[in-house]
Description:
single chain, alpha+beta, Glutamine Phosphoribosylpyrophosphate, subunit 1, domain 1, 2 domains, 7-stranded antiparallel beta sheet, 21 strands, acyltransferase, zymogen, transferase, EC 2.3.2.2, glutathione hydrolase activity
Amino acid sequence: xxxxxxxxxxxxxxxxxxxxxxxxxxxxxxxxxxxxxxxxxxxxxxxxxxxxxxxxxxxxxxxxxxxxxxxxxxxxxxxxxxxxxxxxxxxxxxxxxxxxxxxxxxxxxxxxxxxxxxxxxxxxxxxxxxxxxxxxxxxxxxxxxxxxxxxxxxxxxxxxxxxxxxxxxxxxxxxxxxxxxxxxxxxxxxxxxxxxxxxxxxxxxxxxxxxxxxxxxxxxxxxxxxxxxxxxxxxxxxxxxxxxxxxxxxxxxxxxxxxxxxxxxxxxxxxxxxxxxxxxxxxxxxxxxxxxxxxxxxxxxxxxxxxxxxxxxxxxxxxxxxxxxxxxxxxxxxxxxxxxxxxxxxxxxxxxxxxxxxxxxxxxxxxxxxxxxxxxxxxxxxxxxxxxxxxxxxxxxxxxxxxxxxxxxxxxxxxxxxxxxxxxxxxxxxxxxxxxxxxxxxxxxxxxxxxxxxxxxxxxxxxxxxxxxxxxxxxxxxxxxxxxxxxxxxxxxxxxxxxxxxxxxxxxxxxxxxxxxxxxxxxxxxxxxxxxxxxx
Length: 536
């Protein structure tokens, strides 16, 4: 029998999109079109995802870039594969070396928090393992957008201008000048509707395409990256780049009301979403928009998040086993803390042992859940001159406390916020989903999955529904559209509710589900950004 959300009555900001031959959902229309172009040329969903991801580094540089990280879940031939393309800390960095530079915490911007970027390696690895089209052809749309230019869309223009004004105040040092040269040439930030182009982006993407990303890690681009970072006192070296390869991993899952929800294992924070689903799985919810539903969701999420922030780090250095965190015993223990009033969460104890998201599907049954990010918008603020390579700042999440699970160490991967999701039922793919946006991501996963499975909302409804975000303690941020009577009821339960000025804090999601009987695809895209679905 088809799941209820495949034919639920329609009422939403936008309509869910249906297609038969292929579909790409992401936050930028031109990037989605790049993926569709691959499908129409005979490529598969993996080719479409790579083309879209590469294009996003050009057409949404406010959220990701060539120098970012990536994760992917790929469904093909009845099996789900996981790819972790996040990079480790440089081998020459240490807590002592960072503190000797005068820092008590990892800095947010500059050369210090730069770890090995993984995104180009993800494109090459996905293409080599699953792609049908030549790698040069898959990256061609991104190169074209960079060379010929494209007009800025509304949300893109908004965040580009915000970043420019913020960076103008913050970035006075020489190391940041290439950012202005690249993204605000002649001291002018592009406006909504202006055409922006970058030959540096184009040339870099051409070299990545020609060398299957080898130049980025073991060639000319690698030398340019390391030389520039080290010129300004950073730690990333040619050796760090040369020794890096992405890692194929076994996805982790939990069963939620008959569906298997899948995430990438740590160092990603997808584990938090699964832990929270396990906690709420012990409750029954009669309706979506009632105070009891939101109260229990919020309490479950804060408990799962509190533990996740304590235990999640490089998968090889976890102080708690994933299987323990996903056990029913753990869920019952944490569920017992949820009472009628909001609580201040405390971590459980165990025995020691700035982002873009896209979904793609094709007529052959292949489906991809893919996410990549520079973190905090433009990342570190460091751009390699003449290349368009904006480097991420993932090392910012490392702790300089040597007793912390996520303590900085040479060659270690940090706690990572970006997470792709995937849904299956009875061993068959339902489809990819994701909600990007820092620490909103597992919270978005919980809300979208419950909207889908508990409340039978179709993809567009599941994304459009008002969202909330736990911040810390009892503090909860809600969207402006969140019903006021529920805000008041949650306050009476002890939650400290704040209403956001806009919806920019609540993530951007995409969903593609497949009807198991007909193979028809149905997709939802984010109404909080310039999201679109390209389909045929």
